[in-house]
Design goal:
Blueprint (H helix, E strand, L loop, with lengths): L2 H15 L16 H12 L4 E9 L7 E8 L5 H13 L8 E7 L7 E6 L3 H11 L5
Parallel strand pairs: 2-3
Antiparallel strand pairs: 1-2, 3-4
Length: 138
């Protein structure tokens, strides 16, 4: 007979703990990379050759220090020029850590566009970028 009341209490406790109202301490932490990502997006979309831009950042066990930049070119845009600008903007940004930069550039006038992964773990790639744009910000 004690099992039923104990079970009811346990269920009531679970319902209370998993209620729909979240306390401020249980909400997701603010993304510290958001201002830098928004700045990169703003700089890219401010160019005449870029129609749209989205910058995403992920830093977890499965995808450590990855910046993904997805751009749609405006008519007449040069994908190689925009790709270089993406590398420069990410490299000189305060986003940290950055191990890879994934670049996807869609060109509605000349599909399929450009897809590139820049690995900053590769010493040759890192040194080439550092010699062109200087050291990463501290």
């Amino acid at each position: 007979m004690l099992v039923l009341p104990l079970g009811v209490l346990l269920l009531a406790g679970c319902a209370f703990a998993g209620g729909s109202s979240a306390s401020p301490s249980s909400s997701a932490p603010e993304d510290p990379t958001a201002p830098a990502r928004e700045d990169i997006e703003r700089q890219l979309t401010g160019r005449d050759d870029v129609a749209e831009a989205e910058v995403l950042y992920r830093d977890d066990v499965t995808v450590p220090g990855s910046v993904a930049v997805d751009v749609t070119l405006a008519p007449g845009g040069d994908r190689e020029v925009v790709a270089e600008e993406i590398v420069r903007l990410v490299w000189t940004s305060p986003i940290e850590p950055v191990n890879t930069i994934t670049i996807e550039i869609g060109d509605p006038q000349d599909p399929p566009g450009l897809s590139r992964i820049v690995s900053l773990s590769d010493d040759a790639q890192r040194e080439a970028i550092e010699s062109q744009y200087g050291p990463r910000p501290e």
